[in-house]
Amino acid sequence: MKPAKTKQPAASTPPLSKKAAQFQQLIADIDQSQQEITQLEAELSEAREFYAKEIKPLHQKQQQLALEITRRVDFWLEHETFTKKERKILEFMVTSQVVNLMGSDLFNENEDIKAEAIGLHDKYAPLTLQEIEAKQKEDLLQEVKAYYRHMGIDVEIDPDDDIEAALEKAQATFEEQNPRGRSKKAKATDPEQPSKKAEKAKTEEKKLSKVIQSIYHNLAKLLHPDLETDDEKRAEKSEAIQRVNAAYEANDLFTLLQFQSTYLHTHSDQIAHLPETQLASFIKLLKNQLTTLDQERYALITKDHWVFENLVGDRGKGAFMRKRMLREEKDFYQTFQHNLSQMQSVDAVRGSIAHLRLERDEAGEWVLVA
Q1: Among the listed ranges 148-162, 239-253, 310-324, which one has the minimum average pLDDT value?
Q2: What are 169-207's pLDDT values in tens digits?
Q3: What pLDDT, on the 0 to 100 scale, is given for residue 65?
Q4: Distance CA 368, CA 360 (A)
Q5: Which residues contact 93 (CB under 8 A, 6 or more apart)?
Q6: d(Cα 49, Cα 61) in Å, to the nearest integer?
Q7: Contact 24/271 with Cβ under 8 angstroms?
Q8: Which of 68, 75, 76, 136 is nearest to 97 (CA)?
């Protein structure tokens, strides 16, 4: 009788420490973030092309019609007699149309049209556009003074100062009168006070350089194509070492860590035994990298905010949003055409505004309501 064979326990891989698991998760998060940024860049590019081809021409046509409507209203105001209510509504239509045109391509790219539009606004508005801008600036400057006065600081601001200059002057006055309340930036730039943060950053930079060198040398040994006899594996390692060399030249820690993570994932016992201090250093650097990627994504959205909000949106919704936008803009264009047709005779003008009235909204601004 043969003795029963005893089953050998399978070789177990050591469990990852908390820091090692965090390290691997950060690598995965950064990789996902980079993919999302690449996808977002592609979607924004596609949306910009769509806007230039489909939406911008409609906007330009709408702007031309809006200007023509404004001209027609001005014509009837000059040549016909209206009731006080009718005149107020028509004058409001002129001034509001011009305000809506401000910032448009038609307004900014044609100085003659810009001058004409401003003239029409100023002809019927209680305040000229220049007076409105001056009042808005004065209100902002008063808000700045009131803010610092609340903190016990009297700030002298020249009326000719722009808002940025006023804020700088106010902050300088505040720091002069409150030495203890100087901003961190002021302290950091004080030649008599060397920045501890700068010294710490320099130390961290040296550590990072050593880490990158160490990872690079280890990967260079591991991925050296001459160590492979198999042609396919040699080609794979040749491509890999080229990417490693490029990452090393660019001080791209993440890419180097990606390669190292792939290697460590294959040999999981290695990552389990990395020194905790080294993992902690990696984790800190990778967190910074992830923050930078978040900022990069935010910057992409902010730069093309209108395009993102109206033509891209959340993932997978871009095509639907573009289709809806095109339909809405075509409807707006038809509305402008209809409104212009109502300006061809005085009776049509009176009929088009008979159901309208002026009211103040919650902010105290005049609006037209049906």
Answers
A1: 148-162
A2: 777 777 776 655 444 444 445 555 556 767 766 776 677
A3: 96
A4: 9
A5: 69, 70, 73, 353, 368
A6: 18
A7: yes
A8: 68
The alpha carbon torsion through 348, 354, 356, 358 (nearest 10 deg) reads: 110
Q: 199: Cβ–Cβ under 8 A, 6 or more apart, which residues?
A: none
Cα angle 209, 215, 218; round to 5: 140
Contact 174, 148 (CB under 8 A): yes
- In three state form, how does the secondary structure of the chain look? CCCCCCCCCCCCCCCCCHHHHHHHHHHHHHHHHHHHHHHHHHHHHHHHHHHHHHHHHHHHHHHHHHHHHHHHHHHHHHHCCCCHHHHHHHHHHHHHHHHHHCCCHHHHHCHHHHHHHHHHHHHHCCCCHHHHHHHHHHHHHHHHHHHHHHCCCCCCCCCCCCHHHHHHHHHHHHHHHCHHHCCHHHHHCCCCCCCHHHHHHHHHHHHHHHHHHHHHHHHHHHCCHHHCCCHHHHHHHHHHHHHHHHHHHCCCHHHHHHHHHHHHHHCHHHHHCCCHHHHHHHHHHHHHHHHHHHHHHHHHHHHCHHHHHHHHCCCCCHHHHHHHHHHHHHHHHHHHHHHHHCCCCHHHHHHHHCCCEEEECCCCCEEEEC
Give the whole-angstrom CA distance, residue 365 versus residue 340.
25
How are beta strands 357-360 and 366-369 bridged, if at all?
A: antiparallel
Residue identified by tokens 């049906």 is 370
| Residue that is written with structure tokens 């820091």 in the block | 19
